[in-house]
Amino acid sequence: MLRTTLFLLFLMILNCSCFAQNESLLITKNFKFQDGIYLTLQDLQKNQPNYNWNQVTANLASSDEGFIVQVETISIAEQALDLQQIWGICIKGMPYIRVPKGERTKAATVFAGLRVRGKICYFDYEEAVQEMREMKAYNPVTGRVFRTATLPVEKTVQRQQILHLETGEVVNFTKANFLNWIEDDRPLWNTVAELQPAEVREKLFKCLLIYVDRNPVYLK
């Protein structure tokens, strides 16, 4: 009788545990969030946008690849929202995080898509920056330098970054930063630590996908 009672109690606990897990949403690398506007990371963590798209008027454009959205204005009841107070947006299930403005900014605010979703999310975007470069003018007859000046030159750089979905921290996607975030997966940490510089570019992203698959995170 006692064994039967304990067994039934065990089944009840197991069923409650399964029910609780079913009430949570597993975030896979292709998880689709609710479309809309998210003011904070906490709103995204709950998968509850503050505004739906049918509540606002938006002037925006997306890239051909679909991973960059440039937003000029978002208004609700003819009142413009401060884009710098918006954490992110979501279109067709893809969440986009607002990226910081660089030294040379466009009129539009840029949002980059979280191309990988999970405990660690990945996104990238291009940014125009200026650097000072020494320029030389040559005499066409003698071929000698007759003038040297340091001038600003604009170039485009690609920013590759990762977001920790639980803490909201954003860092550059480098081997060192990635190692700091995967200490809870020691076998993978050892693999990444052994990557040679020539291997990092090819294999680091693959290791990120492995980590996301092996270390699930849930939305409550």
Condensed summary:
The chain has 220 residues and is α+β, with helices and mostly antiparallel strands. The protein contains five helices and twelve strands. Strands 2, 3, 4, 5, 6, 7 and 8 form a seven-stranded antiparallel β-sheet that branches.
Task: Write the topology of this structure.
Elements: H1 2-22, E1 25-26, E2 36-38, H2 41-45, E3 57-62, E4 68-76, E5 79-80, E6 88-91, E7 94-98, E8 109-113, E9 120-138, E10 145-164, E11 170-172, H3 175-181, H4 186-193, H5 197-214, E12 218-219
Antiparallel strand pairs: 1-12, 2-6, 3-4, 4-5, 4-8, 6-7, 7-8, 9-10, 10-11
Q: Could you please describe the fold and organization of this structure?
A:
It is built from 5 helices and 12 strands. The strands form 3 sheets. Strands 2, 3, 4, 5, 6, 7 and 8 form a 7-stranded antiparallel sheet that branches. A 3-stranded antiparallel sheet has the order 9-10-11. Strands 1-12 form a two-stranded antiparallel sheet. Helices cover 27% and strands 36% of the residues. It has helices at residues 2-22, 41-45, 175-181, 186-193, 197-214, and strands at residues 25-26, 36-38, 57-62, 68-76, 79-80, 88-91, 94-98, 109-113, 120-138, 145-164, 170-172, 218-219. Strand 4 (68-76) and strand 5 form a beta hairpin.
